[in-house]
Amino acid sequence: MIIRSPFLRTVRLGISSLLLHKLRAFLTTLGVLFGVASVIAMLAVGEGASESAQEQIRQLGSQNVILRSVKPPEDQQSNQDVRVLAYGLTDSDRLRIENTYPGVRSVIPVMQVPEEVRKGTRVCRPRVLCTRSDYREATGRVIYEGRFLSELDESLEEPACVLSYEVARHLFPFSSPVGESIRIGGEYLEVVGVVLPRGPVGQVSIDSSTEVGGDLFLPLSAGRRMFGTTQVKMRSGSRDITEVELHEIIVDVRKAADVPMIADACRAMLIREHNDKDWEVIVPLELLLRAEETKRIFNIVLGSIAGISLLVGGIGIMNVMLATVTERTREIGIRRALGAKRKDIVIQFLVETTVLSGCGGLAGVALGLIIPAIVEATADMPTIVTPQAPALAFGISVGIGVVFGLYPAWRAANMDPVEALRHE
Amino acid sequence: MTPQTQTEVAAELVNVRRVYQMGSTEVAALDGITHQFGRGEYWSIMGSSGSGKSTLLNILGCIDRPTEGEYLVGGSPVSTLDDDQLSELRGARLGFVFQSYNLIPQLDVLENILVPVMYRDEWPAWALDRAKDLAERVGLGGRTGHRPPELSGGQQQRVAIARALINDPDLILADEATGNLDSKTAEEILEVFDELHAEGKTILLVTHERSIGLRAELTMKLVDGRIDEVVENRSS
């Protein structure tokens, strides 16, 4: 079949020349294929990991500063049978922040109670958080049904509670929990609402034996009345008594720009007021910025590795094309004698390298889309293939074909036709 | 030699020298050749090995340039042309027939015949029909889809001749075109050349075989890069 378009004719000729050495062409293509596939797969895994990290941080609230109580190191405690350990954040810390810093929308206290939650025979251990009505707004929890805690609940010390979705499903598999009562320790509470669950951060708990995960919210005032601030833990031969007024203080800042300043002020205040380092300050915004920086470095590292693998593929192409040019010296001489210009020879060989790298690139894109899907299915890691990644990888592979094909093509074009025709 | 008017001259050499540098010594493969090849003439160029016939053919075929002197094709000097223009000239006005056929193995018969057309800037409308006619003419009309390895030596050389004719060249240059063929097949190829000559084509045939050289109308004998004698072969 005679093709009239010069370009298509050259492409067809290139393909038929490559097919003269199928195995060689295939192996060369493999180099590019794996290069491209690894670029896409690595970017997808990297993007997925950083996206889920950023999502977790975002759920903490980028406008929040979170203060947490931390148990001081054990060596400061004596080896008594009964130990009372008081540490952590206090109500006065909260009031000091509330009264001192302008630009703070609200300062939300959180106290955590290590109690089981029961409904009939069903038991679970969610985070039991005693807090105020503005907790929902600061953390962006979404109501699924009923309502969240109210200011009235707080002031009346109502035995009301709000479940997160997973806790609700566990305790009330077949019906709505709203209006029902549940038991925590010896106390009964009425469920007034259900909120949607959130990512893995919500499940980080002081007591790690949580079976179901999820949260349960009740008014701080009711929590203090029912459970107090001291917690007793039985150990072999001793009892640990800890007293923690507040496990967490969430500072909801009006403007994101003020977050670093307020975080620093909180740190300074805590250093001044606490003798021990029994607190930590978490700034999601800082974490977010750090995560973005990490992502950038991650991308550079991944990009370099992927770039090296593509480079190796490119060198493979160049190597094969140099061999091909030597092998086809006589053909080049014939073509030159029959009227081919240098340009025609360059184009002929560039088309061959581009066909090689383009085929490798296409197959690599296909493989690069499959690998993240497999990773996601088997390793349970989130992956994100951005639309740019396959386009970028394919573009680079074709570019590498051209760049690494240039020298062999140039060598072919600059052969002396007389010498080339004499070549055996 | 009688002076010829420019339109009658297909190719002209004016004091052409081709010098190769072999280390510190210079070797003149062609040493001052002045000659005119008239249009429609059938020449054989003969000489022993090293006499300069291949070098002369390379210069006549514009794949090599003279070190000194001038070579004119159809009256226009070649030395003023750049590499691209020289390529165009080779493709459009010269036809090559090589000793070892030099077909391109990946291409079939028809595509091989069309190779010189492929490097034209535009694809001429007549190309495909002409290629088929030429294949028919050299007796390969039924084998246009075959690739060179599927053809005999004689058939391959016929394809090469058809390829040399596709652009209707001013000059057909044949370098030992029958050197790789048995005598019967060689005779068939030479008959094709005879026919082309009868049609008025200008043919330059390089050979070292006297019997083949004598078939041409005129013979140029080279010795040490110079024209030793020019003979008119009465028998042809």
Based on the model shown, name its key terms:
heterodimer, A: 424 residues, alpha+beta, 2 domains, three-stranded mixed beta sheet, 19% strand, elongated, B: 236 residues, alpha/beta, Rossmann fold, six-stranded mixed beta sheet, four-stranded antiparallel beta sheet, globular, disordered N terminus
What does this structure look like?
The complex is a heterodimer of chains A (424) and B (236). Chain A has helices at residues 6-18, 22-60, 91-100, 135-139, 151-156, 165-171, 220-227, 259-273, 284-327, 329-337, 342-379, 388-413, 417-422, and strands at residues 64-69, 82-86, 104-113, 117-119, 122-124, 127-131, 143-146, 160-164, 181-184, 187-195, 215-219, 230-235, 238-243, 248-253, 279-282. With 424 residues, chain A is α+β, with helices and mostly antiparallel strands. Chain A folds into two domains: 6-56 and 290-422, no CATH class; 71-277, no CATH class. Chain B contains seven helices and ten strands. Chain B has a domain at 41-53 and 84-232: P-loop containing nucleotide triphosphate hydrolases (Rossmann fold, 3-Layer(aba) Sandwich), CATH 3.40.50. In chain B, helix 3 (109-118) crosses helix 4 (127-137), helix 3 (109-118) packs parallel to helix 5 and helix 5 (153-165) packs parallel to helix 6 (183-198). Chain B is 31% helix and 30% strand. Chain B is α/β, with parallel strands linked by helices. In chain B, the strands form two sheets. A six-stranded mixed sheet of chain B has the order 6-7-8-3-9-10, sandwiched between helices. The chains are: A alpha+beta (424), B alpha/beta (236).
